[in-house]
Amino acid sequence: MSVRHALLALLSEGPKYGLQLRQEFEESTGEVWPLNVGQVYTTLQRLERDELIESDDGEAEAGPQKAFRITGAGREELESWLSTPPDMTSPPRDELVIKVLAALRVPGVSVHDVIQAHRRYLVELMQQWTRLKEDEADFDLTFALVGDAELFRLDSVVRWLDAADGRLKRAELEAPGLKTGPIFRRRLVAPR
User: Long-range CB contacts (< 8 A, 24+ apart) of 175-179?
Assistant: First the structure.
């Protein structure tokens, strides 16, 4: 998550104070991602240094009474960030994927048990998110969007675990005792 760009987006609405930005950031993310006030001011200082925002010309130091506003360069940076897809050509270093791959190598560990333990946990999380969303979604659009995103993310991880478990079971039937196979490295290229 880019706090830098989220703050630029909030400042695109007009001048704001640091504490106001913190509060609006949390509200705009469905109050799911708390933001440390120190992080707000550190980010604001960097944005000001990079001339993406400017502050009151008075002698007030960075603090709750200093208003910040986006500059033309800041608007260009924000527009560029919003229109540029993130680089997703390489798989992230996902801890769960690494755990499943590591379980394949550990003697006496059932990779299927590892998968099922994580699957149960993820399904419980999905149930919690569903309940939270049902309670809050009618009142808070941003929370509903965050909840949907989290449910889709968790669902995709559960589906990956199910696919991995099935692939491992098929591999065991085809070659009993096979733990790992050759690793082929392929480089994905982002579509243009």
Answer: 179/104, 179/105
Which one, of 12, 22, 28, lies nearest residue 73 by Cα?
A: 12
DSSP 8-state class, residue 85: P
Mark residue 119 as left, alpha or beta (left: phi above 0; alpha: psi -120 to 50; beta: remaining): alpha
Q: Which amino acid is at 50?
A: D
Distance between start and end Cα atoms, the chain: 24
Any idea which residue has 């808070």 for tokens? 140
Antiparallel, parallel or unpaired: β 16-17 and 53-55: unpaired
Among left, alpha and beta (phi > 0; psi -120 to 50; other), residue 17 is: beta
Report strand pairing: 67-70 vs 16-17: antiparallel
For 35-56, the pLDDT digits (tens) are 888 999 999 999 999 999 999 8
The closest alpha carbon to 178, from 116, 114, 105, belongs to 105
User: For residue 72, what pLDDT is reported?
Assistant: 96
For 3, the token pair is 């706090």
| 3-state SS class at 13 | coil
